[in-house]
Design brief:
Blueprint lengths: L20 H14 L12 H8 L3 H13 L3 E4 L3 E4 L9 E2 L4 H4 L6 E12 L10 E2 L3 E10 L2 E11 H4 L12 H6 L6 E12 L2 H7 L6 E11 L3 E11 L3 E2 L6
Parallel strand pairs: 3-11, 5-10
Antiparallel strand pairs: 1-2, 4-6, 6-7, 7-10, 8-9, 9-10
Helix pairs in contact: 1-3, 2-3
Length: 250
C-alpha cells in the first residue's frame, strides 16, 4: 500500500471567526501590503501557493484577491501574475486630530455633501455622559470627499435651539466642531472624543464606496455647554485605509 501524501498544515487559522474566509484572507493580504511584507511593485505568491499556505480552495483565494483589486491595491495580469500596485503620492490621508485646535481645522481640498437634514430628533446613543440631553436635536448627515473619493460619513446631532444660529452654507464648509465652536454666545464647558475600530456595514460600505466589512474608524464626539446641556453629539465613520492619527508623546 502506498503511503498517503501529507497535506501541508495551514499557517492561518480561519475557523475561529464567523466572517467568511475570503473576507478574512482579504484583511490578511491587505495587512501584508500595508506592512510592506508584500512590497510595491513586487509579485505576490501565486493562487496555488496562497491556497496551500492558508489551507483553502483556490476559489477562496481568488475571491480575496478580487477585493484587493477593487480597492486598487493589486494588479493582476494573465500569464504574468499578481503585483502590488503603487499607491498615489498624494494619498487621501484624513488626520483625526487629538487636540481641540486640530479638530477645528478643515481638511484640505475636502468637499462636504449634506445627505440629510432633519428636525426633532434624538441621538441613538450618548457616547459621553457629560451633560443632559436637549429636548430636541437637528440631525445632519454629511459625507466628506476629496478628489471625488469619499472618506468620512458623519451623523451630527445639534441642539435644535442652537442650530438656528448656524448659517446654511456653514454645513457645507465647516468641520463638525467648528460648526459648534462658531455658534454666537455658546460657551463650551467640556468636549470628548473616542475612537474605536470597526467594519463597514452595507449602508456605510455603499456611502464610502468600500467593500462590505472593510475596516473603518468610528469616532464619537460630544460637547457640553456651561449650563450642563449636551449640545452636540456626533458619530463619524472614516475609511480605515485613509485615516491616520498622530499623537505627540511626552
Amino acid at each position: 500500500m502506498s503511503a498517503k501524501t501529507a497535506q501541508p498544515k495551514s499557517v492561518v487559522d480561519l475557523s475561529r471567526s464567523a466572517v467568511s474566509r475570503y473576507i478574512q484572507l482579504a484583511s490578511l493580504f491587505r495587512r501584508r501590503i500595508q506592512a510592506g511584507q508584500w512590497q510595491v511593485g513586487a509579485q505576490i505568491p501565486t493562487v496555488e501557493e496562497l491556497a496551500a499556505e492558508c489551507g483553502v480552495a483556490r476559489a477562496t483565494i481568488r475571491q480575496a484577491l478580487d477585493i484587493l483589486q477593487i480597492e486598487g491595491l493589486i494588479d493582476r495580469y494573465r500569464a504574468k501574475g499578481t503585483f502590488v500596485r503603487p499607491r498615489p503620492h498624494d494619498q487621501i490621508w484624513c488626520e483625526v486630530a487629538t487636540d481641540w485646535s486640530g479638530l477645528l481645522m478643515s481638511r484640505q481640498d475636502a468637499v462636504i455633501e449634506v445627505l440629510a437634514d432633519e428636525r426633532g430628533k434624538q441621538p441613538p446613543q450618548v457616547p459621553h455622559p457629560i451633560g443632559d440631553l436637549s429636548p430636541s436635536y437637528r440631525h445632519v448627515r454629511r459625507r466628506h470627499s476629496r478628489h471625488g473619493t469619499p472618506f468620512l460619513l458623519a451623523d451630527l446631532y445639534i441642539d435644535e435651539r442652537l442650530s438656528r444660529r448656524i448659517p446654511a452654507k456653514a454645513l457645507q464648509t465647516k468641520t463638525a466642531l467648528r460648526l459648534i465652536a462658531d455658534i454666537p454666545g455658546l460657551k463650551i464647558k467640556d468636549a470628548r472624543q473616542t475612537l474605536t475600530i470597526g467594519t463597514a456595514d452595507v449602508e456605510t460600505a455603499q456611502a464610502l464606496n468600500i467593500p462590505l466589512n472593510a475596516p473603518i474608524a468610528c469616532v464619537y464626539r460630544s460637547v457640553a455647554d456651561h449650563a450642563g446641556g449636551l449640545v452636540f453629539v456626533a458619530e463619524g465613520l472614516y475609511r480605515g485605509d485613509q485615516v491616520r492619527i498622530d499623537m505627540k508623546l511626552k
